[in-house]
Design goal:
Length: about 375
């Protein structure tokens, strides 16, 4: 039997889930699964969800069997809608299952991660990507001393979830000498850049993979240390990311997250203008179902996800960390992202946008002033997966 897969029906959520490799030589090999799919329709009303986001492979025998079962459900339950949930991390499934709505009138296919990541189009902007290395450079000056307090050690197997352009994974590899680093992200452009940098710096121990952080195609209990930096704040359901990080972390291993509370950015002189603008940034992100205030919530989120031995601290990135122009470059990028892109997308008028921009300009002024001070606070939280 050339098939290794699992199936499960959650009656509360009305979700029939398929995962693994479904490559039978005959339909008899998957008879139990197809019968379970038919049975799930008996216990569903309104909409039956069929989750294939972890179905790594399927052949024509399996696909024909699934299609026949769905057609039978449609005939026997004409008032039941069927929604098939795919992921762009497995592009073949979106293409293959995407033909079913033309064949079966009661079937709808949705690409799950298109809706899950509401701010993706903003944070994957090429202009924004260009300054991510500067951000990592400035935070790394703090994090390389913080990480050992949160459990990282030589020889560990590490996963970096939502790795972005991959520079943090490279720094981890150089500083802490893990046995392996697997770095995952949903942005193909960022991963292309990451692979290029790894090749340029002759780093061979980092594997960059495309994937959905809410449906990570990595084995459970696989990693000693799992990181996710500045990313929970971008997802509208961060608890799903933490569930996946918990799953892939080994018992006794640790998960490490960093996030912001942007309204606490500060600067002097012109502190009042700066404070107003960053309070508005928090409201702007909330409008797009993101939470850039999530930093101090890390302890609660980790506890809710099932972690224990939770450790938490914060640090302030400032214009005094190296060249003040580095700090100013970050704020210029934020001004472009928040005021030019996001505020206009929200429909804000020009008077608001000009006032909004002024706070960023004043933050830059504080960073470059010979007696000025500008800060950007980061919260760190980590938790241990119980043994």
């Amino acid at each position: 039997m050339s098939t290794s897969f699992e199936f499960d029906f959650n009656e509360n959520d009305q979700v029939f889930k398929l995962s693994g490799n479904m490559r039978p030589q005959s339909e008899s090999e998957i008879k139990g699964c197809l019968n379970a799919l038919r049975d799930s329709a008996q216990n569903a009303s309104g909409t039956l969800y069929v989750n294939v986001r972890r179905l790594l492979q399927t052949n024509n025998v399996a696909f024909k069997g699934i299609t026949a079962a769905l057609a039978e459900i449609g005939r026997e339950h004409p008032k039941l809608n069927i929604t098939i949930s795919t992921s762009s991390a497995l592009g073949w499934s979106a293409r293959k299952f995407g033909v079913l709505p033309d064949r079966l009138p009661n079937v709808n296919v949705e690409e799950y991660d298109k809706e899950f990541y509401p701010g993706q189009s903003f944070v994957e902007d090429d202009f924004f990507v260009s300054v991510l290395r500067t951000q990592t450079t400035m935070t790394w000056r703090h994090e390389k001393h913080i990480l050992p307090r949160h459990g990282i050690a030589k020889g560990m197997k590490v996963a970096d979830i939502c790795c972005g352009i991959g520079d943090f994974a490279i720094l981890l590899w150089k500083e802490f000498q893990p046995s392996q680093v697997v770095a995952l992200d949903h942005a193909k452009a960022s991963l292309d850049y990451a692979r290029k940098m790894a090749q340029e710096f002759k780093v061979s121990g980092v594997e960059y993979v495309f994937g959905d952080a809410a449906e990570i195609l990595l084995s459970e209990n696989e990693f000693d240390f799992v990181t996710c930096r500045h990313s929970l704040q971008v997802f509208d359901r961060p608890e799903l990311i933490l569930e996946e990080m918990f799953r892939i972390c080994k018992p006794g291993g640790r998960v490490y997250v960093t996030n912001e509370k942007n309204s606490h950015c500060l600067g002097e002189p012109r502190g009042e203008s700066i404070q107003w603008t960053y309070s508005e940034v928090a409201k702007l992100w909330d409008y797009f179902n993101m939470d850039i205030e999530i930093g101090p919530k890390g302890r609660r989120l980790l506890a809710d996800a099932g972690f224990d031995d939770i450790r938490m601290e914060s640090f302030m990135v400032t214009n005094l960390d190296g060249n003040p122009e580095e700090f100013a470059a970050i704020i210029r990028t934020w001004k472009h992202l928040f005021a030019e892109n996001m505020a206009r997308a929200r429909g804000d008028d020009e008077a608001f946008i000009e006032k909004f921009k002024q706070g960023f300009d004043d933050h830059i002024f504080a960073a470059l002033h010979p007696r000025g001070y500008a800060g950007w606070p980061i919260w760190v939280a980590s938790g241990r997966k119980p043994t």
